[in-house]
Amino acid sequence: MKVDDVTEELYPIRTVSILTGINPVTLRAWERRYGLIEPRRTPSGHRLYSRKNIDTINRAIELQDQGMTIGRVAQVLRQHLAQERLRSETENWDERQAEMQNAGTAFSDSGLDLVFDTAIGRHGIQTVLRRLIVPLLDRLEDETESRDHAGQCFFDLYLRGRLAGLFRERRRLARGLRLLVTGTGVTNTESRQLIFALAAQEAGYRPVVVGNGLPPEELAATAELARCEAIVLHTARAAEVGFGRIAETGVPLMVVSAAGDGQAIRSNGAIPLGRNVDDILRRLTDCVGKPVSGRLS
């Protein structure tokens, strides 16, 4: 699933050339001769590339390193894209969620890897987050009383490790407004923080994830030290958090929490973001502005 066009970051050709090591002349040739990538255009005709375009270029480089000609690379990638679209339309996400849940209950790293890696290979990380991981977390939280606690702990640890690895891999592309991403120590929200951070990276923000346990009175100072424009705080229940003093520091405080907590959040001078990833990104853009596109820093 592609992030909203409102927040998706696009990169000029000079930036893409730096990130991939492919010169602009070659990038234009790959577009014109082989249809390998389809950048968007500004009203003045300048090319702008998405993260997906950059992933395609990097994949093309890998296939060339394996000995393929660029013509054959373009053919293979076009076939892969067509297959990916077909699989996305026919994928049974409920079954994939059940498979991951069963693998966690069985303490099977390999079983979790199989479902997770296959899904990412077919659909990409953003679709997997929205269609597989977030709904599965919601389901497990709804089954608090009935689920196997040990299996859930195993799954939580696995998921945090995989999401953290993906986040680190993508940090080199992160730019734009810096956001301090944290959570309360009341409930484990680290997986949710990483899911948000990956989506925010894709949207063009630069999240700084510090995890759970940072005392509320230290959040504003930490945001200033990390040069963050805003704080995105994850919590299971806003009523459990004493964050009223943060709003008095002048650092915008936004809270990701369960539905129905909006009044408690606003009464503390903070901004409720809800819980849906795409809604969060839209509200974030409204509150702190659009990400800064096309600039390395």
Description:
- There is one protein chain.
- A 5-stranded parallel β-sheet has the order 5-4-6-7-8, with helices on both faces.
- With 297 residues, it is an alpha/beta fold.
- The chain is globular, with a radius of gyration of 21 Å.
- Helix 5 crosses helix 8 (149-170), helix 6 packs across helix 7 and helix 8 packs parallel to helix 9.
- Strand 6, helix 11 (244-247) and strand 7 (253-256) form a beta-alpha-beta unit.
- It has 3 domains: 11-89, Multidrug-efflux Transporter Regulator, Chain: A, Domain 2 (Orthogonal Bundle); 91-167, Methyltransferase, Methionine Synthase (B12-binding Domains), Chain A, domain 1; 174-288, Rossmann fold, CATH 3.40.50.280.
- The chain has helices at 13-20, 24-34, 51-65, 70-90, 93-105, 109-123, 125-142, 149-170, 190-203, 216-225, 244-247, 262-267, 277-288; strands spanning 11-12, 40-41, 47-49, 178-183, 206-212, 230-234, 253-256, 271-274.
- 57% of the residues lie in helices and 11% in strands.
- The chain contains 13 helices and 8 strands.
CATH topology of the largest domain: Rossmann fold
Radius of gyration: 21 Å
Order of helices and strands: EHHEEHHHHHHEHEHEHEHEH
Helix content: 55-70%
Distance between the termini: 27 Å
Structural domain count: 3
Outline: globular
Average pLDDT over all residues: 81
The protein's oligomeric status is single chain
The name of the CATH superfamily of the largest domain reads: Cobalamin-binding domain
CATH class group of the largest domain: Alpha Beta
Q: Give the strand tally.
A: 8
The profile of the biggest β sheet is:
5 strands, parallel
The side-by-side strand order for the widest beta sheet comes to 5-4-6-7-8
**Helix segment count?**
13
Structural class: alpha/beta
What would you say the CATH architecture of the largest domain is? 3-Layer(aba) Sandwich
